[in-house]
Every structure is written in C-alpha cells, then in structure tokens.
Amino acid sequence: MTPEQRYFFDLTGYLHIPNALTDDELSAAQEAAERYLNTSDEELPPGFNIDRERNHFIWHFFGFAFDKALERLTRHPSFWPVVLELMHDRPRLTSGNLMINNHTHEFHPLHSQREGTGTRGPEAPYYLTGKDRIFCDHLVVFVYLTDVEPGDGGLIVLPGSHKSEFDRPDEYFYPGSRTPDGGYSPDYRSFDVPAGVANITPKAGDVAMISEMVTHGALSWKPEDRDRRFLTLRYMPQYTVGSDWPPEIVERLDPETRELLAVQPYKDIKTILSE
Ligand SMILES: O=C(O)CCC(=O)C(=O)O
Ligand SMILES: [Fe+2]
Fold first, then answer.
1. 5 pairs with which residues across the strands?
2. Superfamily of domain 3-274, CATH level 4
3. In the prediction, which pLDDT does 175 show?
4. Is residue 213 in contact with ligand 1, taking CB distance under 6 Å?
C-alpha cells in the first residue's frame, strides 16, 4: 500500500485504482463473466447459482470461482498489498460474487456496518490505525468489468463516514429511499449526488475498494443499453469465524486460493504471503 493510498483510504474510507488490470486480464475476465451470465440454470456447474430476483443486482454466486481468469483476480497485484495491510497480513476471502446492475433495479439505500443499532459495542467492526498502517476487519474490493460514466449511477459513498462519531439523521441524504421501518422503498429512484456524497465512476479494468464501515449505496442505473458488471471480493481477517464454502466450489480452486479462503489462527502466516 503506497503512502498516497494509505492517506486517501484513511481520509475517505475508499480507494479507486484506475487501470488496475492489464488489457489481457480484463478481456479474459469479461469473457468469463459473459459466459457465466449466459449459462442456463440447468447447465451451471455444481455449486453455482444465479439469483435474478434481488432488488439491486442479478447475483452470480461464487463468480470468482467460475473461471481461472476471475479466480486470479482474488490476489491481484494492484490491490493485494492493500488487502495484506488492512488484514494485518492475515487475509481471508469471505465472498466473491459477480454482480450485474441494470436500469430495472432499485436504488440501493445508504448503509454500512457501522450504522444501525448494536454496531458500536465490542462486537463492532473495527477500523484502526497504528504502526504506520491501517487495520480494518472488512474490506470490499470491486473489480469493474464495464465502464461507469459520470451520470450513469452506481456506487456512492459518504467519504469519511467510516470514522464518523454521530448517527446519520435518517433523512439527511436521499429522503424517501427507505420505508419508515428502515426497509427499502421499492419505487424510489435517484441519480443525485448531493454535497457530502461521492459517486465513484470506475472504468472497465479499474478497481474500487471500500471499508464496509464507510456508508455507501448505489444510485439508480440510468443507461438502458448498458449494465454495470463487477466482481465483489470481500476480505476479513483469517481468524474471524467463517462460513462454510460449498465443497463443489472449493474443489475447483487452486491450492493458493483454497488457502486464501481458509480460517486459520492468528499465529499462522499463510504460505501465499511468501510467494
Ligand atoms: O452497487 C454497489 O456498487 C454497492 C454494493 C454494495 O453495497 C456492497 O457490495 O456492499
Ligand atoms: Fe454494501
């Protein structure tokens, strides 16, 4: 992680790395994603499934494992040093889904792991700094496979909110985007970027990253002739409790990726760190 990246991430809670992938890496990843999208449910390899009914995306579960061109991205050199720094050299991949967002989907209201009840006690997620580095127990990496142009919609963040000390007044941004009981308002649409909000507009081959503690969401997607495609990779420390991966998914993976998925004690340093 460069001093510039560390400064920006600490200040804002997010990072945008332009041109993270080479042209070859990008076209191989795009082609693999396209293949997953075009595979019918009956033809999907065991362990994979697609949820087309969700409010905000078409979810292609375990997309990272669908093809080696996507699996390779889990330790991509453009952002791997950031993963290692934030995970205190004890990384674990906890999910890796391929997401498609199109104009039929809902606005994705602002949320974060820091917001809501019960997330500021000892069970809270953490964002800490010390020893000239950042420690954060939940990093979300978005590898973009399609272009987002300013005005299209897509990822929004409240820069700095990973460290905010006050609760966000409910209707401060995007009033009406949630129902009174905190649910999502199904007919709400917005392309607005009010003061205090940043709309991240990566190009295909860029990487964006957020701490799950930074308040974020997604604007409605405007273009009807293009969608927004990205691989979402979530990293947590290897010593936190993990959920089980389906064996059919794990057995497809390279040994190095299996190690990345593994829950291990704090004292262990994974061999993938010495490559
Ligand atoms: O649509 C987006 O870019 C945001 C997705 C999101 O909130 C998440 O993956 O946690
Ligand atoms: Fe989120």
1. none
2. q2cbj1_9rhob like domain (2.60.120.620)
3. 95
4. no
Tell me, yes or no, if the pTM score tops 0.70: yes
Outline where DSSP puts E strands in 8-161.
14-17, 50-51, 58-60, 91-101, 108-111, 127-130, 133-136, 139-144, 154-157
218 touches ligand 1 (CB under 6 Å): yes
| Confidence label for 242 from pLDDT (cuts 50, 70 and 90) | confident
Strands (E), 71-184: 91-101, 108-111, 127-130, 133-136, 139-144, 154-157
pLDDT digits (tens, 9 = 90+) for 1-57: 999 999 999 999 999 999 999 999 999 999 999 999 999 999 999 999 999 888 889
Atom from ligand 1 closest to the CA of residue 111: 7
